[in-house]
From TrEMBL:
GO terms for molecular function: peptide binding; vasopressin receptor activity. It is a multi-pass membrane protein. The lineage of its organism: Eukaryota, Metazoa, Ecdysozoa, Arthropoda, Hexapoda. The chain crosses the membrane at residues 30-53, 65-85, 112-130, 151-173, 193-213, 260-283, 295-319. This is Mesotocin receptor-like isoform X1. SUPFAM superfamilies: Family A G protein-coupled receptor-like (SSF81321). It is found in: Cell membrane. Pfam families: 7tm_1 (PF00001). Residues 43-316 form the G-protein coupled receptors family 1 profile domain. One of its GO terms (cellular component) is plasma membrane.
Length: 373
């Protein structure tokens, strides 16, 4: 069985000398990886197509949030192409057939999409945190700064993949049997590397995501109570001003936060089993003799670390009406979509009550224009 890392008992000489495998389990591995790859490829390709249609044909403004979605979709697509696809080919051939150079290239690319997706999610969380919790400071943050944070995520992800080139090599694990294999020369090298990977790829982004979105939810709840959305004075009667003023946090902003919270929740759910199992299998001395580690369940769990990449694009479509409309209009050749969209926008704008010209509403619209414009 080949994995992103040849962890725990997989590095033992007795197992590496055995050039046989469970064909029934191998078929399940291939089926799982094929499903993940196809769903990942289709979903993220559709998101990128919708973004292109929205920008190219409908002439819609490419806002900061769409910039983040673009790079997150690219990261998820790279996960499918650089991680899932090579792993699928590896499971089909059983032993690695690519040679020394391809071994190092594939091992460099496999964690790249996972790192990139984690750090772009972190950048998005930080951007939403400043937008909602510190809106006046956020207005001074330029789009250039947000782009630099995303490009920094790309550079950091590439840097963290460099150790893969050193650790993995095309090695003869038994007479006549060659494999793309990890070699650790220090006694605790394997434990240190797996722990380091778990911290940098999952734990640190996890801490940032939990902190920022917890503060965001608290801020939205507090703002909703202040604006009378949740509790209008704790009475059945409210003034005309309270009933008609806009909330400090716009509906578009809340919808974006809901979308990202679901994305982050799935990120945590899909990464925790893989990271937890690998840490346990590495740090527990008795894990190598456990039926769970050597069984089918552990093998399947080790393939699900990229599951988030095939789920994310469908969340974007579920929450973003513009992406769905752009894609359907293109598929059904609705060339007049942008015109009708502008007409609907003007019509909705004309229906806004005059009371929204209050001081609080002006601040809300200003913050929203800076965030989403």
């Amino acid at each position: 069985m080949s994995q992103d890392f040849n962890f725990s008992s997989l590095t033992s000489s007795s197992e590496s000398a055995d050039d046989a495998r469970d064909e029934y389990l191998a078929r399940w591995e291939i089926a799982v990886l094929t499903s993940i790859f196809l769903i990942t490829l289709l979903g993220n390709a559709l998101v990128l197509l919708a973004l292109y249609i929205r920008r190219r044909y409908q002439r819609r403004k490419f806002t900061r949030m769409y910039f983040f979605i673009l790079h997150l979709s690219v990261a998820d697509l790279l996960t499918g192409l650089l991680d899932v696809l090579p792993q699928l080919a590896w499971d089909i051939t059983f032993r690695f057939q690519g040679g020394a150079v391809l071994c190092k290239l594939i091992k460099f690319g496999q964690p790249f999409g996972l790192y990139l997706s984690s750090y772009i999610l972190t950048v998005i969380a930080m951007d939403r945190y400043y937008a909602i919790c510190h809106p006046f400071s956020y207005c001074r943050i330029t789009s250039r700064r947000s782009k630099m944070m995303v490009y920094g995520a790309w550079a950091l992800a590439a840097t963290l993949c460099v150790p893969q080139i050193v650790i993995f090599s095309y090695t003869e694990i038994s007479p006549g049997v060659w494999e793309c294999w990890a070699t650790f020369y220090l006694k605790y090298g394997e434990r240190a590397y797996i722990t380091w990977y778990s911290v940098t790829q999952f734990l640190l982004p996890f801490i940032v995501l939990v902190y920022t979105y917890t503060r965001i939810c608290v801020s939205i709840w507090t703002s909703s109570k202040m604006s009378g959305v949740v509790d209008l004075n704790k009475s059945n009667k409210a003034s005309f001003f309270q009933r008609n003023r806009d909330p400090l946090i716009s509906k578009a902003m809340i919808n974006t936060v809901k979308q990202m919270i679901i994305v982050v929740s799935l990120y945590i759910i899909t990464n925790t089993p893989f990271i937890g199992c690998e840490l346990w299998a590495t740090w527990d001395p008795k894990a190598s003799t456990s039926s769970f580690v050597t069984g089918a369940a552990f093998t399947i769990l080790s393939l699900l670390n990229s599951l988030t990449s095939c789920v994310n694009p469908w969340i974007y479509f579920a929450f973003n009406k513009e992406l769905r409309s752009a894609l359907t209009s293109f598929l059904y050749r609705k060339k007049d979509y942008s015109l009708t969209y502008d007409i609907d926008a003007r019509r909705n704008a004309s229906d806004v009550p005059s009371s929204t010209s209050s001081f609080i509403s002006r601040i809300s619209r200003l913050a929203s224009s800076k965030i989403f414009g």
